[in-house]
Amino acid sequence: MIEEPSIAILPGDGIGPEVMDEAVALLKDIEEYDPSFSCEMTSFLWDSNYYLENGRMMPEDGLDQLRSFDAILFGAMGAAHVPDDVTVWEFIMPIRKNFQQYINYRPVKKLRGIQSPLINSDAVDFVIIRENAEGEYSNSGGKLYEYTEEAVAIQNTIMTEKGIKRAAQFAFEQAREKGVKLTNATKSNAVIHTMKFWDEVVERVSKEYKDVHYEKVYIDALAALFVQKPQSFGVVFASNLFGDILSDLGSALVGGLGVSPSANINPTGEFPSMFEPVHGSAPDIAGKGIANPMAQIWSTALMLEHLGRSDLHQLIINAIVKALAEGFKTKDLGGDHSTTEMGAAIRKYVVKQLQGAVV
Ligand code: NAI
Ligand code: MG
Hints:
11 helices; Isopropylmalate Dehydrogenase; binds magnesium ion; 10-stranded mixed β-sheet; 2 domains; alpha/beta; 12 strands; binds 1,4-dihydronicotinamide adenine dinucleotide; 20% strand; two-stranded antiparallel ribbon
């Protein structure tokens, strides 16, 4: 565990600040009730209003300001008056790319008390590990003869030996640690240049992990298996685009956006990793106090695990399950509890456990 980790808090837009308040309150409670934990939080009010006033999403030295933190806790970004590609390419992507957060980590875990659209959703518990720095989202390409009948658009997928290898190693390490199978999501039968290369590198890495059961499944069949046999997965390893799509499918299987956490990880530790809910700023419900804070709180738990406190991670998951069992649910889960009521319920059971109770 890093001694008194420094955490950059980026609440963002819409429901971002609402759910972030609950996460920050939780961290403060943990500090108060766990003598072995303290952290230093610094908030940055970079949001779409900042963009309107300054013409940019963050100050010129914004990345430098964030660089020295041990972790970044992010809410969500996006508002009607700023184009979405600006928030993505001038805020989220620069952080992910400059800080070499080349792993996107998303647990797909069905918690007791949450309804799934699947008839049999018990024991769904796996993680999607997505290559997060290159591949289909490399921002390489262009247009020719725009606005004419000869118009052409080219988007390049860039896959590198180094990029695939380091992500695959992380995924195999996770599979080994968890004692589960690794499923490689591919489409090398049709995308014969990049995906075939992807498979070759992943298979080479698999030789270093002979103890890990390895399988290769085509992405179309895999999507069906997510619905038919979600219990059969342990670690699913995917390229940037495939992982993005599978993550939303996975999230829908276990309760939807309000409960789905994610982590953008720089495994080398050279730069801070960033933890954020999968959902966006939800302008349709912003300001109403009804957003589900679970995804933000679960992301906070992932952050604590990353900082070396897997015990606190587990304790937060227990508290979420307990709060659900006690009937606490926000509107998206079919209940009528507010953001603050849900957050307070989870905190209550975290504190109880820190005081020695089993919940
Ligand atoms: P969204 O995730 O914000 O909302 C989709 C639907 O899910 C909405 O009906 C919303 O009310 C609901 N929802 C989301 N989070 C919820 C929560 N915690 N509790 C209850 N209901 C919740 O996605 P949408 O509408 O496509 O995008 C809205 C804005 O967010 C856009 O500007 C978009 O660019 C941005 N966005 C930002 C992301 C980020 O910061 N990482 C990720 C996704 C979208
Ligand atoms: Mg997505």
